[in-house]
UniProtKB/TrEMBL annotation:
<keyword id="KW-0805">Transcription regulation</keyword>
<protein>
    <submittedName>
        <fullName>Helix-turn-helix domain-containing protein</fullName>
    </submittedName>
</protein>
<keyword id="KW-0238">DNA-binding</keyword>
<dbReference type="InterPro" id="IPR009057">
    <property type="entry name" value="Homeodomain-like_sf"/>
</dbReference>
<dbReference type="InterPro" id="IPR018060">
    <property type="entry name" value="HTH_AraC"/>
</dbReference>
<feature type="domain" description="HTH araC/xylS-type">
    <location>
        <begin position="176"/>
        <end position="274"/>
    </location>
</feature>
<keyword id="KW-0804">Transcription</keyword>
<dbReference type="Pfam" id="PF12833">
    <property type="entry name" value="HTH_18"/>
</dbReference>
Length: 274
């Protein structure tokens, strides 16, 4: 599918397509919540968050919604495959990934694969094309799992500690710590004040930082992770709704159902059937 934009996929959880970026040279790219961009041909000069990169066949970028990405020049045959994810799909992909990967990608969004990573990426794209072209059932689940495989491979290939060197500003460091705390405590705690207390700051200050660096309120980030945990538990058919409510510290199954429907528009049984 030809892709005219890397922006928000709208009602779709994700969109895959090709682009030559004919009209984008010299203009900041409008980006979806997460974009993986793989160069298929030609070359281009880019700036991402004011850092210059030369992208050639086989290279790829991982861009976030708040990335500042600009193509300054390109060859006539430059083309890329783009994988665009909205917030919901990106959150599901991120659910099994270490928080240190996000810190790393924030600093190092560009990859020039070595032989091993290049072979993996080619096989990964080929398999994803088969999933998109031939699978009718479970396509979305397979897509989410397939993106997770790519990022987990990166975790094994790169030095994640390079993204965590202690030269972040204090506000940035607080935000990344908040992200880690959500993953560790969201099953038991859903209130912003709890996390602000662990970080030794006020809920108001945490809200300011979260909106600045993550473009979301802290409560939104917490609820998103809780919903992912509920979905994960609902994927276990032998586990009752009451067991899930107990494990995630909801007052009862009814409150769990109301919470889930408020955030997803679906009832618990409706989601399980789907």
């Amino acid at each position: 599918m030809q892709m005219n934009s890397l922006g928000d996929p709208g009602t779709e959880d994700y969109v895959i397509g090709e682009s030559q970026f004919s009209g984008e040279v010299g203009h900041p790219l409008a980006l979806a919540y997460v974009v993986v961009l793989v160069c298929q041909d030609g070359s281009a000069e880019l700036e991402v968050n004011f850092q210059p990169y030369r992208m050639m066949k086989g290279d790829f970028l991982v861009l976030a919604e708040d990335s500042i990405a600009l193509i300054t020049s390109k060859s006539d045959d430059f083309s890329c495959t783009g994988y665009r994810l909205n917030r919901s799909a990106a959150a599901e992909v991120a659910a099994v990934l270490p928080s240190s990967l996000f810190v790393f990608l924030n600093r190092f969004p560009f990859f020039r694969p070595d032989q091993g990573l290049s072979a993996f990426l080619q096989a990964w794209e080929s398999q994803l094309a088969m999933i998109q072209g031939q699978c009718s059932s479970y396509k979305r689940v397979m897509f989410i799992n397939h993106l997770q495989n790519l990022f987990l491979w990166l975790c094994a290939e790169v030095d994640l500690e390079a993204g965590t060197k202690n030269d972040y500003s204090r506000p940035e460091a607080i935000c990344w710590k908040f992200w880690e705390l959500i993953s560790a405590h969201c099953k038991q705690h859903r209130e912003v004040a709890f996390y602000a207390g662990l970080l030794h700051i006020t809920p108001f200050y945490l809200s300011q930082l979260s909106k600045k660096y993550f473009n979301d309120a802290p409560k939104t980030l917490i609820d998103r992770q809780v919903v992912l945990e509920i979905k994960k538990q609902l994927g276990q058919p032998r586990k009752s709704v009451q067991q899930i409510a107990d494990e995630l510290h909801f007052a009862d199954a009814s409150y769990l159902g109301k919470y889930f429907k408020r955030h997803t528009g679906l009832g618990l049984s409706e989601y399980r059937k789907s």
